[in-house]
Design a protein that fits this description.
With 232 residues, this protein is of the alpha/beta class. The protein has a single domain, classed as 3-Layer(aba) Sandwich (Rossmann fold). It is 34% helix and 28% strand. It contains seven helices and ten strands. The strands form two sheets. A six-stranded mixed β-sheet has the order 6-7-8-3-9-10, sandwiched between helices. The chain is globular. The two termini are 22 Å apart.
Length: 232
């Protein structure tokens, strides 16, 4: 977690072009510690490109992307990967779990990749699985888990390194409505505990339930923004 109110993400006039196609056409966006921001917009609007920029998976054609004080565009691929492992947790629509590892090892691996000792990593992983209510599934392989359980494992893995920022790309997109509701509750709880959150979603319910601010992206530009008030 980061200092309250500190800027965690800063995009300044970010453009991204793929040949003749402009995916982002000058986006400026700031996300502060503790915020939950949902990015919405039609397919092809640039939402996923924006998320990839913040994750350091892609570099801007022009403009700057700063995450937790690091200018991602100034780093090489290895440098961006390091920021991703240490500072950013990522949750995907289709879980991206490793089929040949049981739940506990899927989660612990994220910490081992940053140099954490296996015993320590497994201890932290078990702690997270307990917090997320799936410690009893620790020795089960992904194929035998329900969609909701798999997404909880993915959330645990994303939180392993206590990231400054949690990114979620359509986190309820592959889930039935009940499992989707559970993941929404989980993201809301994490944000209320102080986790900074950036969601990309088509789901208006997810955005209004979990986010304190909704940013609308159309044709690679921010077309509007609204702040949401949540009643306790």
């Amino acid at each position: 977690m980061t200092d309250d109110g500190a800027v965690v993400v800063q995009l300044q006039d970010v453009r991204k072009e793929y040949g003749d196609t402009t995916a982002l056409a000058g986006i400026t966006l700031q996300i502060r510690a503790g915020e939950a921001v949902a990015v919405m917009g039609p397919s092809g609007s640039g939402k996923s490109t924006l998320l990839n920029m913040v994750a350091g998976l892609d570099r801007p054609t022009s403009g700057t992307v700063t995450v937790h004080g690091e200018d991602l565009g100034a780093l090489n691929e290895a440098g961006r990967a390091l920021v991703r492992r240490r500072r950013i947790g990522m949750i995907f629509q289709f879980f991206n779990l490793l089929d040949d590892l049981p739940t506990l090892d899927n989660v612990a691996l994220a910490a081992q990749l940053t140099g954490t000792a296996p015993k320590q990593a497994r201890s932290r992983a078990l702690e997270l699985l307990e917090e997320l209510g799936i410690a009893d599934r620790r020795n089960i392989y992904p194929a035998a888990l329900s969609g909701g359980e798999r997404q909880r494992v993915a959330v645990a893995r994303a939180l392993m390194n206590r990231p400054a920022l949690l990114l979620a790309d359509e986190p309820t997109g592959a889930l039935d409505s009940r499992a989707g509701e559970q993941v929404m509750d989980l993201l809301l709880d994490l944000n209320q505990l102080g986790q900074t959150l950036l969601l990309v979603t088509h789901d208006e319910r997810l955005a209004t339930r979990c986010a304190s601010r909704v940013v609308e992206v159309v044709d690679g530009r921010i077309a509007g923004e609204r702040t949401l008030e949540h009643t306790p």
